[in-house]
Amino acid sequence: MRILSHTKNVFLTLTLTALTHNIHAQDQNLTLNQDPKFEQLLNDKRKFNTAISTNDSYRIQIFSGKSDEAKKTLSDFKREYANIDGTIIFNTPNYKVIVGNFKSRIEAERNLIDIRKKYRNVFLLKPGK
Predict the structure, then answer these.
(1) Contact 94/24 with Cβ under 8 angstroms?
(2) I need a surface site. Which of 51, 58, 62, 72 has the fewest CB within 10 A?
(3) 118, 76 Cβ separation under 8 angstroms
(4) Sheet order of strands, 58-65 included
(5) Domain 58-125 class?
(6) Is 111 in contact with 97 (CB distance < 8 Å)?
(7) Residues 63-104 pLDDT 10s
(8) What is d(CA 28, CA 55) in angstroms, rounded to the nearest whole number?
(9) Is 60 exposed, middle or buried (0-12, 13-18, 19+ CB in 10 A)?
(10) Are 78 and 70 in contact (CB under 8 A)?
(11) C-beta atoms surrounding 70 within 10 Å
(12) How far apart are CA 42 and CA 25, in angstroms?
């Protein structure tokens, strides 16, 4: 093992110190100039989004179980009922197939009767649930 002489150690230390003395990675200030209309649009969007209620419609759950079976059930449902939308929701440990977006309970119950003829364990989901 080769040991550097004392003068070489001092020289190397001073050189590295001099090179790293002026390094400041995060010392920059950033000024952002944006149009005031942009902030107004953001505020309008925030107000609009709070007014939207996402759970104000009745839905029907037609399946709860494994992922593959849920995908097959949704695919079969979309073939039979092209005018009713559906989705799969994961709620540990099951995948649930939820269909419909009915504005009134009467409309949802009419569809529930028809869907119940083809699917077994179906039930109505109330808004906000």
Answers:
(1) no
(2) 51
(3) no
(4) 86-91, 94-102, 58-65, 123-125
(5) alpha beta
(6) no
(7) 999 999 999 999 999 999 999 999 999 988 999 999 998 989
(8) 46
(9) buried
(10) no
(11) 20
(12) 32
Q: What residue has token string 């995908």? A: 71
Q: How far is it, in rounded angstroms, from Cα 24 to Cα 52?
A: 47
pTM: 0.56
Tokens of 1: 């093992």
User: SS3 string of the chain?
Assistant: CCCCCHHHHHHHHHHHHHHHCCCCCCCCCCCCCCCHHHHHHHHHHHHHHHHCCCCCCEEEEEEEECHHHHHHHHHHHHHHCCCCCEEEEEECCEEEEEEEEECCHHHHHHHHHHHHCCCCCCEEECCCC
